[in-house]
Structures are given as structure tokens and as C-alpha cells.
Amino acid sequence: QVQLVESGGGLVQAGGSLRLSCAASGNIRSIRHMGWYRQAPGKQRELVAVIFSGGSPNYANSVKGRFTVSRDYAKNTVSLQMNSLKPEDTAVYYCNTVASTMTDYTYLEVWGQGTLVTVSS
Questions:
Q1: Which of the residues 2, 31, 56, 62 has the least number of beta carbons within 10 Å of its own beta carbon?
Q2: Do 25 and 12 touch, CB atoms closer than 8 A?
Q3: What is the mean pLDDT of residues 8-35?
Q4: Which residues pair with 33 in a beta bridge?
Q5: Is the pLDDT of residue 46 over 90?
Q6: CA 82 centroid distance within chain
């Protein structure tokens, strides 16, 4: 079973920066991608940024040029550096991965517990 643990959320003023981190653990055999989604109050969950293994990052248009996603393949971690934050970035941010384990070769989607990012104006 794969688990994701996130850290790094908090309260920041508009224009500020935060860094989110997520670590995958468990009997991991292979990871297809790691990335971040967010869900603002009253809105649907949306993709923020994702890196497919061996590929380039993909970003939502709303965060391009401000957010940077990076992976450490050896440690099975993914980070999200968020700069020039805006009040509309306020949301619960969820780490996401699709991975398989040594005992079950089936790829399953896994979500973290979520971390709250609040940007004040």
C-alpha cells in the first residue's frame, strides 16, 4: 500500500511564497506520476501541476510562471514551490500519485490528506 504525506501549507500574504512537499512511502515498485491538485471552497478539485516519470512538468494555466513542481526520483518525493501567491490560490492542496507496489502490480491512484494554503490580500 502506498501512502502520501504532505507538509508545508500555511498562511501567507499575497505576493509571498510557500513550498509544499510530499513523500510517498510503502512497498513501491513503480510510480507513473506525482503531482498536486487543489480544491477551493465551493469549487471542484483541479490539477495544479504534475510530473510524469521521465517527462516534463505540466501546469495549470493559472499557475504557470509562478509555481514550480519538482521530483526527487530516488526519494519518491514531489515538491511545489509557489511564488507570487494570490488570494485565489487559497485552497486545500492535495498530493497525488499513481503507483504500483511490489506485491500488487496494479497501478492505483493515491491521494494525500491535503494541506491548507491561505493567501491573504
A1: 56
A2: no
A3: 96
A4: 52, 98
A5: yes
A6: 11
